[in-house]
Amino acid sequence: MNIIEKLKKAELKGRGGAGFPTYLKWESVLKEKSDLKYIICNAAEGELDLKKDKYILENYLDEVLNGIKIALETIDNSLAYIYLNKEYYSLIKDKVRDPKITLIQEEGGYIGGEETVAINVIEGKNPEPRKRPPFVSQKGLFQKPTLVNNVETFYYVSKIEKGEYEQERFYMLVGESIKGGVYELKEKMTIREILKETNNYPKEPFYVQAGGGVCGEIFLEEEFDQEIIGEGFIRVITYNEDPFKIMERWAEFLNSQNCDKCTPCREGIYRILEMVKNRNLKGIEEIFLALEKTSFCALGRGAPTSFRSLINKVILK
Amino acid sequence: MINIEIDGKKLKVEEGKTILEIARENNIEIPSLCYHEDVLPKEGCRLCLVEIEGMKGLHTSCGTYALDNMVIRTKTKEILETRKTNLKLLFAQHVEKCNECVWNNRCKMLDYAKKWKVSINEWEDRKKDYPKYIFGNAISYDSSKCINCFNCVQICQNQGIGFLEVKKEGAFHKVVPSKDKNKDCVYCGQCVSHCPSGTFSPVNPSLEIEKKIKEGKYVVFQYAPAIRSSIGEEFGFDYGSIVIEQMIAGIKKLGVKKVFDVSLGADLVTIEEANELIERVTKKEKLPMFTSCCPAWVKYVEFYKPELIPNLTEVKSPHILLGGLIKTYFAEKEKIEAKDIVVVSVMPCTSKKYEIQREELKIDGENCVDYVLTTHELATLFLKHKIDLSKIKGEDKDELLGFSSSAGVIFGSSGGVAESATRTAFYKLLNKKIEKIDFKEFRGVKEIKEAIVQIGDIKLRVAVVHGLKNAKEIIENNLSDFDYIEVMSCPMGCVGGGGQPVPTSKEIRKKRSDALYKIDAEAEIRIADENPRVQKIYQDFLTNKEIINKIAYTKFSQKQKEN
Ligand code: SF4
Ligand code: SF4
Ligand code: SF4
Ligand code: SF4
Ligand code: FES
Asked: Domain boundary at A161, A186, A219, which?
């Protein structure tokens, strides 16, 4: 069985958050005709408080490199880049010796992880998103077909190749009231199971943010019996914490990390920050709508989710 | 051809066009702000939104190419709502300073706000404390007005300059002047023409001029060749309308004593420049010779390519030359002292504002030109004084320095200087036997035009270039292929200058340029040498080498970073 079939059979989905079947991504790059193709291992990880890829690089670098190698062997005439969060660059820079793999430091912070931003940065351009189509699998890095997968995905590619994959994934848990950390657990676990199994279930009443880092949705205790879709990240928040403070942190983060390219995201998030600081949310829904519908890239479009669910589920209740 | 549908209208259109382009061609109105055809769409403002069936969310029409069978809607409730929010957010960063704005009275942002009933003052302007920069006393960059479209950065790069950079300061990206010691502004003003929010503007001397007029100074205006086909735009005339007499009447109404035509200066420049060209070509010295009537180009050479300074023709630019004549020849005739005359040039150009400050241009300690007003600034002055060129009765320009050949008129378009000088070279070398007068090879929108002109025994290899990046390309690749190179910094030459009315586009520039060539085609006197005014000036005043040198020639020198 070749690797594509193995990936298909293992039902591996991309671990960057989008959850797209990995084998399809590989196939679409494979079927393009080109003298040269590129592979990018995305380790930009710019989410607020998220350090899952860092953990994997620190503990399982060999698996990740092996995953990349498998991709290099599968895709003819290909070269690979590891696109790294600035902090992580120094962690591994002396440990990668493969002439076909080049390390690049990420730029652009939070949005630096967006795959078209990554491509722009590797090409030496401004850290800004590109428009799709064309899709990167057709015209990506240097206009060549390009496979972009996350660190965790490559880690599991290696596991799958070796027949060691057990439908697991990594989760990161944070919160003032819990110990937290990075855990490798079964896929398809519910929020409650994850929190319980890792001993991160606080005694006092709480709720969580899950599935998308700073843009992740809020789930109340009665909603804990569902799986996490998207990013394996859970923020545990107790009712003692000030929800406005939490939103302030999100807004500060987004405001300083977005690329400022488009009006709704640049100005809208600034106004959201102002509103949550002033504890006055009048007019915020209008900005949410503009962000969701008219932002240039997925980061702006996804930004309202967390705010809106915190406001509706916690503040207004 | 592909089939698409916009708002229920079925259209058959060419492939490879954006939805916005197609909508415009078919009179479907889609608002847009940051889009400008001269730069690549950055899709930042998010006002030109459309809905496309089968595609999630809303999309920008300026950056989305139409594909076969697309069904597009431009007026859904969601579009109307969200673009209002985005406009509101744009105003929330932008400090309105309409009176001094190049968009005043034709501002899209305000028009939309009015039409969509958007309150523009809901929030305090985010940029209210942002600084203002002045470059070379010519260009003002008031960053409190910027809406982050980055058109200026692109256009400055397209000029091959790259003086404007995007830098992240704190949480936000800002446009800032480069600190790189190898980069400097050349004052071309293309950032002014391409900024949708009036953040860039020329440094306006109107108040000082009004003061001089009030004080009873002898104020003389002279207007550049390219003004006549653009000033009308500010008063509702069609693009390419020639508006001279009305403008002169308007200027007179301001209390100005005389109005002269810089095209006469252009005729004189032509004659001197052709002399210099013939001399250099015969002696095979300092070739290729570059034109030097575009001050942004001169500054470019002085700063970026100082080794080429000897190649610039040393003839002054037309308005400086004529300004010098006003303060000498004219002053003498009218028995006025030079120091009591104030010369104001109306120019399509921002770099002329920088040029007039050059010390080396002074004649007997006097500036040749005291102030430069752009086309737009003159129009603003008219409006302030309630002078409407569409309603005013025209007046003739003033005799003494008012008449030019049509060769001096086409100076306003790319190719015009080369064509005018070539006509004169023919005239001189072939003893007034004109074999050819139209040099179509120098005309048109192409950015680099090349031609070989045989004048008797002399084979003249000419290049005509507009846009500094293109000049750079020739300099770096095939400089030695030419004997004579005309360079204009702005697209299509001065008709596309940074001081011209906004908006600008390829079509608008072409109409302005065509209008000048139309004047030329219909003119009786089409060669500088045949202008009787010119002949008289040489008879009466420019009678020897020394005085000619003093009035018509200058020197250039290497420049250090100024901004
Ligand atoms: S939504 Fe707009 S400003 Fe925000 S990160 Fe994306 S492109 Fe940049
Ligand atoms: S762009 Fe100019 S005219 Fe328009 S609102 Fe701003 S300052 Fe006023
Ligand atoms: S100064 Fe004008 S052109 Fe430049 S980014 Fe700002 S709004 Fe755009
Ligand atoms: S005037 Fe010309 S060179 Fe100067 S900043 Fe503007 S575009 Fe760049
Ligand atoms: S005009 Fe299309 S995004 Fe600004």
From this structure: A161
